[in-house]
Amino acid sequence: MIGRLKGVVISLAEETAIIDVNGVGYEIYAAPRVLQTLHPGDEATLSIETLVREDLIRLYGFPSENERQAFRLLQSVQGVGAKHALGLLQVLTPSELYDAVTAEDVTAVSRAHGVGKKLAQRIVTELQSKAGALAGATGEVIAMAARKKAAAAAPSDPALAAKADAVSALANLGYDGVEARRAVARAAESLDSPGVEALIKAALKELAAA
């Protein structure tokens, strides 16, 4: 199976790119945000996931091995095919996806085209049970899993509680869960032992500046 390709971009289409590797043109399917980074005549290196079906063989390209692993992991969920997985990786990076799963943020997962609330709930539920695979994907996920475990073991931790309450408050104001958690994390780094109100105010400034 092909796991990586390095070659020259020959042409681009809505869903695919043709990459020439030593005279052989490979048709690569990829998310729009990945295709937007490619330009005809430029050299490109992509991690490749090869999908083999009875009636076709398709190559899917990703800018990193982490994205390829996330693509593979998503398809382990019942009802999630390659198109759904690409759609999810169009709107969420692997770390944001795992963050949403860890936080059980169904709304964030359902942002992907073609992923309704029911399928998003299934993705969150099934990937919750695969925490080991999530943790093995990236170092950042390991850190998130550790924070979640620490929070479960010590729910009275004031810093964790303040962050959770701040994210909840922002979500109630209508902000996207992923963006809210990202803003609260940045706010927490800039403040010394912040309380909930301070976190919310600082996070709102972060969101306004984004």
Entry keywords:
single chain; alpha+beta; five-stranded mixed barrel; 11 helices
As a whole number of angstroms, the C-alpha radius of gyration is: 19 Å
Spatial ordering of strands, largest sheet: 1-2-3-5-4
Oligomeric composition of the shown chains: single chain
Number of helical stretches of at least 4 residues? 11
Poorly predicted tracts of residues: none
End-to-end Cα distance, whole Å, is 41 Å
The shape is elongated
Q: Structural class given helices, strands, pairing?
A: alpha+beta
* Mean pLDDT, all residues: 85
Residue share in helix: 40-55%
Major sheet summary line: 5 strands, mixed, barrel
How many β-strand stretches?
5
Order of helices and strands: EEEHEEHHHHHHHHHH
Work out the strand percent. Answer: 15-25%
Could you characterize what this model shows?
- This protein has a five-stranded mixed barrel.
- Helix 9 packs across helix 10 and helix 9 crosses helix 11 (about 195-210).
- With about 210 residues, it is an alpha+beta fold.
- The protein is built from eleven helices and five strands.
Offer a concise description of the structure.
This protein has 11 helices and 5 strands; from the N terminus they run βββαββαααααααααα. By secondary structure, it is of the alpha+beta class. Strands 1-2-3-5-4 form a 5-stranded mixed barrel.
